[in-house]
Amino acid sequence: MAQLGWLVPLLPALSALVLAFWGKRLARQGDWLGTGAIAASWLLSLGILADVMVNGSTSALRFEWARFAAAPGQAIQSLGLGLQVDALAAVMLVVVTSVSLAVHVFSMGYMEGDARYKRYYTMLSFFTFSMLGLVLADNLLLLFIFWELVGLASYALIGHYYERPEARYASMKAFLTTRVGDVAMFVGILLLFRELGTFRFAEIVEAIEHGAVAPHVLTLAAVLLFGGAVGKSAQLPLHVWLPDAMAGPTPVSALIHAATMVAAGVYLVARAYGIFAPSADAMQVVAWIGGLTAIFAATIALVREDIKQVLAYSTVSQLGYMMMGLGLGAYTAGFFHLTTHAFFKALLFLASGSVIHAMHHVQDMHRMGGLLRKMPVTGLTWLIGAAALAGIPPFAGFWSKDEILLAAYHSSTPALYWIGTVAAVLTAFYVTRATWLVFFGQPRDRHLYEHAHESPAVMTGPLVALAVPAALIGFWNSPLSGFAFGHLIFFHEVHEAEPSMTVTALAIGGALLGVLAALAIYAWRIVPAATVIRLAGPLYTLLKRKYFVDELYHWVFVRGTMALARLCAWLDQVVVDGVVNGVARFTQGLAEGSHLVDQQVIDGAVNLTASGTVAAGNQLRRAQVGYVQAYALTLFASVVVGLIIFTIGG
Amino acid sequence: MIPLSWVVATSAILFGLGLYGALSLRNAVRILMCIELMLNSVNLNLVAFSRYLHPDQPRGLVLAIFIMTVAAAEAAVGLAIFLTIARNRTDIDVDKIQLLKG
């Protein structure tokens, strides 16, 4: 079964091609084709995962892409690309195809009647193909190619409602911001290629284990690679694009900006773990960036009004958790959190999509409320997702988050453990706040409430389907299953962290604290939200304005670029144009001088000749008296004079 | 035989008369006639010198014949010009024929 890995991305690719060219002619604009292709891919992925889990089989498919010599006369090198299926890829395949399938089905309801329905499904198929290719790539180059393709799909889907300016700007912002990280990543890839002459993960890791790369070069390469992950996974300081990316359709947010593409950065670190792990400094960078992102984004999520914004910052925060886990050496825990997060966050996003659909595209939570009665399926599935996110046992998030915190607790940097724990409290708080504001309490907008309705089965179906893994998948890596996930996904050796009652108790206590605090403020109104806001004062403004990061970037980068452009324009106008104009002026002067010589000297000589001739003629004409006899007399006189001279001279 | 000096003197007087007439008269035909007179005085000169210096050779006589031929042609051309002038203008007074005056 594992040998069929190449078929998994191929099916969505074919579907994307067919939809792109013939989508309009197909029944229902071909949504069934995209969904069918991804369903087949999903079944294949499940088969592959089972095969990998039971038989431990892996497979690789390689082909030569290019032959080249680094310089004329040097040995010909062969550049191979390939796909590989191993445990990591198999799990990721299942995650991607599951969420993608749910989103495909959900979109049939959510996007119904959309003006660009075909384009939407085409790009969804295209994205799934790219993401699956990224998962299967066995080398950095192919991974980078797919990495850019998912970025392209993300760009196109964020900008799906491109008649709205904010969607256009958001898609550009996402594309450009991730590009910053991608440049670093590409430099890192080339650095490794220069050192080792290969792009393949297996060969790179093997060479590093043999000490083929100097430690500082390795650290540099790892940090540069991590730069790509920072961009894609919206880590500090390149997190700004992800909240804006919520301008895209909500199912897209669920698929790309919660479950899969943003997790690609985490996947990259996991996939290239052999490059990161030997460099303690690089690992520290990963861990700290992740930890800081986790708490930073969680604090911003506390005060968002837009339901999707809460989830967006929550995603940034949870991605930070994953990075922190990987950076602390908790390879299994980090990747496990990716897996659980994909399911429960996709569930939360789709549930929010269902709510937004019912609310006629109102996203402000303060206009919702009491929706559980109107939308029981959406509400209950949301509750499962929220509990998973908050880390309430036994839901999925509890198990994976607990393991990361455990790793942080045992690590040499206890600060990260406390950061993680505080972020967990904050997470529980904001998700409870969102839950209460949306589904409980009194409806705040009576008109919207009365028009709200439960979504059709095509939308609630995927919610229920995702709620199952969101609730249960945590047991995959729990004592109940004998840590089956940890025996499947591990780095070098199975690592079973020593369980700590302190960590677990604090994690559960923290989650409950967050939940109770949120309920106290929003449900029981012991301390009303307005009072908290007044007490927080400037801190609230700071959070509300997202730490002014957007403003900072606007001032530094946007304005900076504009200023640079103006400087260049000035240089261009003054210096370059000055030189050009100087040359022109010099030529003009030369021409004028030449003109002067031509007019005065040459024409003067010509005119002098002419006027001299005229003057001579005027003088000579007096001799022409017109009397024939005068001429005759002159003639005779001349003869006489001539004769006299002749005679005397003779 | 008449001395040569008399003939030469006669010729000189004739030439002087012709020259005077050619330079002083206004009528073109008269001027032409005076020119003929001057040519004939030259002819007389030539014939006289031929007779006195080389009576056995006709060289001077031949030259006189040539001059008479040329004089006839000149008279024909001159009269033709005057005839044309007379047709275009009322008279042939040479003082009035001065179109080429500078």
TrEMBL record, chain B:
Transmembrane segments: 6-25, 37-54, 60-86
InterPro entries per record: NADH_UbQ_OxRdtase_chain4L/K, NUOK/Mnh_C1-like
Family matches, as Gene3D superfamilies: 1.10.287.3510
Broad class of the protein's primary localization: membrane
Keyword flag Membrane: yes
Keyword entries, A-Z: Cell membrane, Membrane, NAD, Oxidoreductase, Quinone, Translocase, Transmembrane, Transmembrane helix, Transport
Protein EC: 7.1.1.-
Coiled coil ranges: none
Catalyzed reaction equations: a quinone + NADH + 5 H(+)(in) = a quinol + NAD(+) + 4 H(+)(out)
Location relative to the cell: Cell membrane; Membrane
The keyword Phosphoprotein is annotated on this UniProt entry: no
Topology of this chain in the membrane: Multi-pass membrane protein
One MF term in the entry's GO annotations: NADH dehydrogenase (quinone) (non-electrogenic) activity
NCBIfam families hit by this protein: PRK05715.1-2 (NF004320), PRK05715.1-4 (NF004322), PRK05715.1-5 (NF004323)
Description of how the protein assembles with itself and partners: NDH-1 is composed of 14 different subunits. Subunits NuoA, H, J, K, L, M, N constitute the membrane sector of the complex.
Family: Belongs to the complex I subunit 4L family.
Protein role: NDH-1 shuttles electrons from NADH, via FMN and iron-sulfur (Fe-S) centers, to quinones in the respiratory chain. The immediate electron acceptor for the enzyme in this species is believed to be a menaquinone. Couples the redox reaction to proton translocation (for every two electrons transferred, four hydrogen ions are translocated across the cytoplasmic membrane), and thus conserves the redox energy in a proton gradient.
Protein name (database record): NADH-quinone oxidoreductase subunit K
